[in-house]
Amino acid sequence: MKIFWNAFFAPLRVLLVFALFVSSVSLNNALAQTKAAADSQNKERGSANCAPAGSWTVPGKGEISVTDVIAAAAKRSVVLLGEMHDNTEHHRWQLQTLAALHAEHPDMVIGFEMFPRRVQKALDQWVAGELTESQFLAASDWNAVWSTDARLYLPLFHFARMNRVPMVALNIDTRLRRSVAAKGFGAVPENEREGVLPPSAPSAAYLGYLLPIYGEHERAGKKKNPGRDDPDFLRFVEGQQLWDGAMAQAINAALSRPGRPLVVGIMGSGHIKHGYGVPHQLKALGVSDVGTLLPWNSGTSCGQMIAGLADAVFGTASLSFVGHDAPRQRLGIRFELAEDGGARVLQVEKGSIADKSGIRDSDIISEAAGFSVRRLEDIVEIVKRQAPGTWLPLKLKRGGDTIEIIAKFPAMPK
C-alpha cells in the first residue's frame, strides 16, 4: 500500500512544485511590471517637475537661486526674455524679471518684438507720458502689427512708462518681410530695407531646428517631408533670419546709447532657444555678452530641458483665468490688409485655433461670420465677439481657390 501511495502522489508532487514555480515566476513578473509602471509614472512626474513652478533652473545642471540668476543677468550687455505670445503667466514672469533687473541695473532700455520701427515715435511719446492707453495703441497700430490682446502687454508698457525706461521697436514692417520671402533680401531695393543689413548665415544646427517646424506647418500642404535644400524651406529660413537679424541690429544700436545701458529684449522664445536666432545674429555683430532667460510651462517634457537651451528657465504654473472677465478670443494669426480686400495671413501660430482649423500662411480671409472683411479691425472685432464654445465660419482665398472652414473656439474650462 505504501508503494502504491508513493507511486500515486509522486507525480502530484512534481505538478505541485511546477505550479508553485510558475506562480512564483508570474508573481515576480507582475511585481516587475508594477514596479516598471510605477517607475514610469515617477519618471513622468519628475519630467513634469524638472523646472518646478516658481523656481529657476539651469538646463543640464539643476536649480539655481533667483539672486544668482538676476545678479549674473544684470552684468550682461543684453538680456533676452522669451515668451509664448498669448500666455498670461509668461508676461507676469517677464514683468517681475524686468523689475528685478531694473533694481540691479536702472540704466535700461527695453526692446519689443511687437513693434515695427515705423512706430518708434509712438513708443517715445508713451514713455514720456504724452499718450493715453487708447491713444498709444492707436498710434502704434497695435491691432494691425500684433493683434494679440493688448491687456497681456500693458503691464510691461506701464512699467517702462512709470520708470521712464526707453522702449525700442525691434521689428520690421510686414511689407518688407513679405518682399524678402517672395524675392529674397538681395532683390529688395536698399531704400526699402528700413536700414536693415543682410543677416548672418544660419548655423547647421539652426537649419536642423527649423526644418521640423517648417514641416509641421506644411503638413496640410503637398510637401510632407521637405529637405534642407527645398526652395520654399530656404525662403522660410531667410524670413526667420531677417526677423532675427533685424531685432539683433536694433538691439545693437540701442547699446550705443550714452552709458551703454542694459538692453532687455522681449520676444518669442523661438528667437532665443539654443542661441540659434537673435543671439547668433548679435554674435555676428560683435555682441557676445548676451543672457537668455526663458519661461518653462509646467508639465513640459524634460526631454527638451537640455544644456544650452538658455542660461536659465523659470517654471510657470498652468494657465488659470483670473478675475471676472472671460478671456478674449483670438485666432492666433498675424495679418495685414490685402490690396483687393480681406485679411492676408502673414503667420499662423502653432497650436492656435487658426492652426487647428487649417488656416495657412498667405491665405486671405475674405469673410468672417458672413461679413466681408474690409478693414483690419473687422477680423479683430468679430473674433472678440465670439463666445467660448462657439464656431466661426470663415471664407478664405487660397491661390485661385475659395475655401470655407470653421474656426472652433473651445469652451471655458471649469
What does this protein look like?
- The chain is of the alpha/beta class.
- The protein folds into three domains: 1-33; 56-316, Rossmann fold, CATH 3.40.50; 333-408, Pdz3 Domain.
- It is built from 13 helices and 14 strands.
- The chain has helices at 2-48, 66-74, 88-104, 120-127, 133-139, 142-145, 154-162, 174-183, 204-217, 231-255, 278-284, 353-357, 376-384; strands at 56-58, 62-64, 78-81, 108-116, 167-171, 262-266, 290-297, 312-316, 333-337, 343-348, 364-368, 371-372, 391-398, 401-408.
- The strands form two sheets. Strands 2-1-8-7-3-6-4-5 form an eight-stranded mixed sheet, sandwiched between helices. Strands 9, 10, 11, 12, 13 and 14 form a six-stranded antiparallel sheet that branches.
- Strand 1 (56-58) and strand 2 (62-64) form a beta hairpin.
- The protein is globular, with a radius of gyration of 28 Å.
- Residues 1-47 and 320-325 have low confidence and may be disordered.
- Residues 329-400 form the PDZ domain.
- Keywords: Signal.
- Residues 1-32 form the signal peptide.
- InterPro entries: Cofac_haem-bd_dom, PDZ, PDZ_sf.
- It holds the Pfam family PDZ_2.
